[in-house]
Write the structure tokens for this entry.
Amino acid sequence: MWEYTKKVRDFFLHPKNVGEIENPDAVGEVGSITCGDALKLTLKIDKETGKIADAKFQTFGCASAIASSSALTELIKGKTLEEAMKLSNKDIADFLGGLPEEKMHCSVMGREALEAAIAGYRGETHVPESGERVVCKCFDVTEEKLRRVIIENHLTTVEEVTNYTKAGGGCGACIPDIEAVLRDIWSLKPVAEMPREPKKLTNLQKIALIQDVIEKEIRPQLQADGGDIELIDIAGDKVIVALRAMCVSCPMGGVTLKGIEEKLRELVSEDLVVEEQ
Ligand code: FES
């Protein structure tokens, strides 16, 4: 059980500024329900003063995500955009009297939603540049985000990085890359030891990860060739799929299934077996 401060509990049980502003001036959406947390922040901005007149949030997440999002809205209301942009994830956590270390990623998500909303309002592109390196495929964490969070929060171990960004918290395949980023930033050698064995996924994590890999990695590739795929069921390590569209009549269907299996083994678990319905 996590140790929550009284303020975290208050902001979780009685969150302020829940909802969505009608006709907002700025919207910031981050996270993904597949990864477990998602946050939508809407802002009303006073054009004359440049101050945030109102802020509301909707979130799918744990107690810390709700408390962090609510705290964020309280902290930014009345601030100019420049002042709001100075807010760090640590400020959000500090406002709440601290968050469990394992939940610091909730404060990072709040900071990112704010950044996305303001960038959108200013007409800047917030989405990662195409070609930007994704270090953790399970949680779609780019190297740029890792570097920023590591430096801002003085993180030195992979475990801390996972707590703040979730990177490394799934299949574990990205752990060597996270270590390399840490070494590069702090010139440490070697970074504090982390277990090399990939973490054992819970059933829920495994199912979410399989769905995520199919949606983000496999389906776009098949669709590019006129095919498609439907996930039918997951039973233990057996992933049952149906090939659709052009894939149905493709004589290379067996090869396609093998490719799907290899991808899922690479990104989720090497025990997975893919079968066609
Ligand atoms: S790729 Fe980072 S945890 Fe799987």
User: Anything to note?
Assistant: Residues 102 and 163 are 4 Å apart (CA to CA).
